[in-house]
Design goal:
The complex is a heterodimer of chains A (150) and B (421). Chain A has 150 residues and is of the alpha/beta class. Helix content of chain A is 19%, strand content 27%. In chain A, strands 1-8-7-3-4-5-6-2 form an 8-stranded mixed sheet. In chain A, helix 1 packs parallel to helix 2. By secondary structure, chain B is of the alpha/beta class. Chain B is built from 16 helices and 14 strands. In chain B, the strands form 4 sheets. Chain B has a 5-stranded parallel sheet with strand order 12-11-10-13-14, with helices on both faces. In chain B, strands 8-7-6-9 form a 4-stranded parallel sheet. In chain B, strands 3-2-4 form a 3-stranded parallel sheet, with helices on one face. In chain B, strand 10, helix 12 (308-318) and strand 11 (328-333) form a beta-alpha-beta unit. In chain B, helix 2 packs across helix 6 (160-167) and helix 8 (202-214) runs parallel beside helix 9. Chain B is globular and about 65 Å long. Chain A binds chain B through residues 13, 32-33, 37, 44-45, 65-73, 75-76, 78-80, 92-95, 97-98, 101-102, 105-107, and chain B through 23, 26-27, 30-31, 34-36, 49-50, 52, 54-58, 60-61, 64, 137-139, 142, 155-161, 245, 386, 389-390.
């Protein structure tokens, strides 16, 4: 078992620093109807992360999706401490960005949101350790098993 | 902050117009760059979706704004709320939940919003006119205002909507600007029988298909042989904003920014052209039905809220009949339409049939239907779409008349007509 490290530079949509385990999916996620703000569970059965718990993870998705209420649900999940520790996206997304602005302004909780290139996006996998810095630089450490089957 | 502000906007941000306006301007200026805006523009009205109860944080925010003297700067209508203010007890709502849902609505009223409590504000006196810059939320209302009326708004989600209302500003970006209102996708109807186009389930199916095909662009639909009514366009706008994030579409020869195909695309060639045939529409219609047998437990009309005309159609169809006792019928509408019906006798005719005519709310945003199983039949693509997820029931999609017949007979009755192939 060894580890590989990838360093990237993103653009902070919401600036902050954190380090946590990644949950990665190449599928947009809507918080409204897609995430239960009480538990932080992904409840959209059609989403690859269905059944996963977002709390304390770095959520890595191409973009947020959907309804006018999604930013409100994001705010509720921050208040309930079920929100992800940070969000990494590959397309600018006003919905998640708005949710994170609301969390900072109303609850004084920073959920860093980082915009990265699709190349950087593809270098992250579920289970990787991701650390994000204020300036948007980030580091991904993958744990490699001899016979990786995931 | 990379947003250029006028001196008045700067005063709002500096707190000279009160704490609520300061907070609203702070949120607006932080989020505007995410929409690609470099400055703000003035809007003449707002429609608020944040009055739907999502949890304590949203309630705390609204009460904080109202408590610090927040007052809307432009005429502001309210979307549905999470309870029927006059009938919630008979709907079996949990009193603690009802209290929060009611307080949320009151906080917005305290800021000067009108108690419209409807998801179809474009069918009230709060409707905008062509070219008007507005800040609306609620996906179906945004799609209708942009597409059918030609007013201009992006989709303003929680709680950017009240931030726009308190400041009278919106990000100068996206669908507020000419260049983003041109078509991106051309959808050409090919060999779609006129008999299909005339049915009241055609427009929601067409919308559902196009939202799914286009997801995020500005679709332009050509080849319609039939002239749709406002209610048919309403059903289409709601469906297109349900299956996709479409906030503007054009119907050539029907909607105001699409007199011709060339106008709709600004003289440019469309990036994508898709031929739409009856087979694709059939498949889209099938996706709206998830139930597999003929049982029916709930029949629901009114997403978006039923207009007076739609209620009149239902009243005409139910004349002389009664719904089966084991089928619950909901007609969700606004208090304004319900009050008119209480005076003109329509309400009595609908209630005699066995319908629950609710105001202020709907079955997606309020736990009116406490059961988490069974079959929901509806003429609304939006209700049908959210049946299996948010409402918790399998769905069947049909025409208004199919829905009425099914309630009368106590089992699913679908008149396939030209859908059969």
């Amino acid at each position: 078992m060894g580890s590989l490290t990838w360093r990237g530079q993103g653009r902070p949509v919401i600036s902050g620093s954190t380090a946590a385990t990644a949950l990665w999916a190449n599928e947009p996620l809507s918080f409204w109807g897609g995430v239960d703000p009480e538990t932080g569970l992904v409840i959209d059965q059609r989403h690859p992360l269905a059944g996963e718990r977002l709390a304390g993870k770095v959520l890595v998705i191409p973009t947020g999706r959907g309804s006018c209420s999604a930013s409100g649900v994001f705010l509720e999940s921050v208040r309930n401490r079920t929100a992800p520790a940070a969000v990494i996206v590959s397309q600018v997304d006003p919905i998640i960005g708005l949710g994170a602005v609301l969390a900072e302004e109303l609850l004084s909780v920073t959920v860093p949101v980082l915009l990265v290139t699709t190349e950087d996006f593809d270098h992250i996998s579920t289970g990787d350790h991701v650390s994000i810095n204020h300036d948007g630089s980030f580091e991904v450490s993958s744990v490699c098993f001899a016979s990786y089957t995931g | 902050m990379d947003i250029e502000l006028t001196s008045e906007e700067r005063e709002m941000l500096d707190g000279e117009h009160g704490e609520a306006t300061r907070l609203a301007m702070r949120i607006l200026t932080r989020v505007s760059p995410m929409y690609g805006a470099k400055s703000l523009l003035s809007v003449t009205m707002a429609h608020i979706d944040g009055c739907i109860y999502e949890g304590v944080a949203g309630l705390e925010f609204a009460e904080r704004l109202a408590g610090s003297g927040g007052a809307v700067r432009v005429p502001t209508s309210l979307n549905v709320i999470s309870l029927d203010r006059h009938r919630w007890q008979s709907h079996g709502l949990n009193p603690a939940y009802a209290d929060h849902a009611r307080r949320l609505g009151e906080a917005y009223l305290a800021m000067g919003a009108t108690p419209s409590f409807t998801c179809a504000p474009y069918q009230t006196s709060n409707a905008p006119i062509f070219g008007e810059q507005i800040a609306w939320s609620e996906s179906n209302a945004v799609a209708f205002a942009n597409s059918i009326i030609g007013a201009r708004t992006n989709r303003y989600g929680d709680y950017l909507d009240i931030s726009c209302a308190l400041t009278g500003r919106a990000p100068a970006a996206g669908l507020h600007l000419d260049e983003h209102r041109l078509g991106t996708h051309h959808l050409r109807l090919r060999n779609v029988p006129i008999a299909l186009q005339e049915r009241d389930d055609f427009y929601p199916v067409l919308g559902y298909l196009i939202g799914d095909l286009v997801t995020n662009g500005v679709p332009v639909v050509s080849g319609l042989d039939h002239r749709p009514t406002d209610d048919q366009l309403k059903a289409m706008a709601a469906a297109i904003a349900t299956s996709g994030a479409v906030a503007l579409f054009h119907l050539v020869g029907v909607t105001p920014e699409a007199a011709t195909i060339a106008t709709a695309f600004g003289g440019q060639k469309p990036a994508v052209t898709i031929e739409v045939d009856a087979g694709m529409l059939r498949q889209s219609r099938r996706m709206l039905t998830t139930a597999t047998d003929s049982n029916v437990d709930v029949v629901a009309f009114g997403s978006p809220h039923c207009s007076l005309e739609e209620c009149r159609t239902i009243a005409h169809l139910v004349e002389g009949y009664q719904a089966q006792a084991n089928v619950t019928v909901y007609i969700t509408t606004s208090q304004a339409v319900r009050s008119i019906m209480a005076r003109n006798g329509l309400l009595e005719r609908l209630e005699r049939f066995g319908a629950n005519v609710t105001a202020d709310t709907c079955i997606v945003v309020s736990p009116l239907i406490s059961r988490k199983s069974g079959v929901l039949m509806t003429n609304s693509a939006k209700y049908a779409h959210y049946g299996p997820g948010i409402i918790g029931m399998q769905s069947v999609f049909g025409t208004t008349s199919d829905c009425v017949r099914s309630a009368i007979e106590g089992r699913i009755t679908l008149e396939e007509g030209p859908w059969a192939a």
